[in-house]
Each structure stands twice: as C-alpha cells, then as structure tokens.
Inverse folding.
C-alpha cells in the first residue's frame, strides 16, 4: 500500500472514532443531566422500624402504605424490619408519608436517609468504568 492510502484510512478511522466518542459523551451527558420531576418520575424511600415485626405487622404496614396517595409499590422485610416503597414525588413526598405512617401506626419508625459518604459509595463498579470517567470529565467542564 502506498502512504496516501494509509493516511486516508487512518484519517477516516480517526474521524469515525472521534465521532463515536462524541456521540457517547453527548449521550452520557443527556442521560445523566439533572431533570425536574414529572408525572412519570418514581422515587424510592426507606423506613427503618426500630422494633421487631412479624409477618402480620408486615401485612398491616404494607396495606396501610398502599392506601396512601402517590405510593406505587411497597416491600416489607420482617426479618430486617425495613420497609421500602416507591412513590410519585410530584403527588407527595417521603417525609409526609413517613410522618403520617408514624402517627397512624403504633411502630417506632424512622426514615432512612443515606449520608453523603453512603451516596458516594453507591455503585462501586461505576467509579472504575470508562463511562463514569467520561461522564465526570464532561460534568466538571
């Protein structure tokens, strides 16, 4: 092959790689940018029950939460005394639901809110992935 063809192939290859990296970076930014909650947004919240509960208590808690406005799905683990529920934040908020829970039911409960350190260590694989590194690069621009 002569050098003109090699240069041409290298230029085309470099341009294609540059194009796909740009598309990937734009995609990562677009997906991870902050968005305001809308009617389709679902959030999760956790309630820690500060006393042992059994299956009957779990059913009572689950039924009560399902009756609340904006609650979509409820999971109650009687072994760990943890309640996790999903809700529509545009219709209600977790603090209000937990406050009503504490006043309506006879359980010692507290909403679990992760610390900043816990939030930072959320997904250990994400921090080492190339996608995360590209995202952080563009986020910090």
């Amino acid at each position: 092959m002569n050098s003109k063809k090699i240069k041409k192939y290298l230029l085309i290859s470099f341009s294609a790689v540059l194009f796909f990296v740009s598309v990937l970076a734009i995609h990562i930014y677009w997906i991870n940018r902050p968005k305001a909650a809308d009617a389709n947004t679902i959030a999760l919240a956790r309630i820690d029950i500060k006393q042992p509960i059994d299956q009957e208590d779990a059913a009572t808690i689950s039924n009560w939460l399902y009756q609340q406005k904006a609650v979509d799905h409820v999971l109650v683990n009687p072994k760990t005394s943890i309640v996790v529920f999903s809700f529509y934040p545009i219709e209600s908020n977790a603090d209000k639901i937990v406050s009503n829970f504490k006043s309506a039911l006879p359980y010692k409960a507290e909403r679990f809110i992760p610390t900043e350190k816990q939030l930072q260590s959320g997904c250990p694989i994400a921090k080492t992935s190339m996608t995360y590194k590209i995202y952080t690069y563009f986020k910090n621009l």
Remarks:
- The beta strands are 43-49, 71-77, 82-87, 109-112.
- The chain has a mean pLDDT of 87.
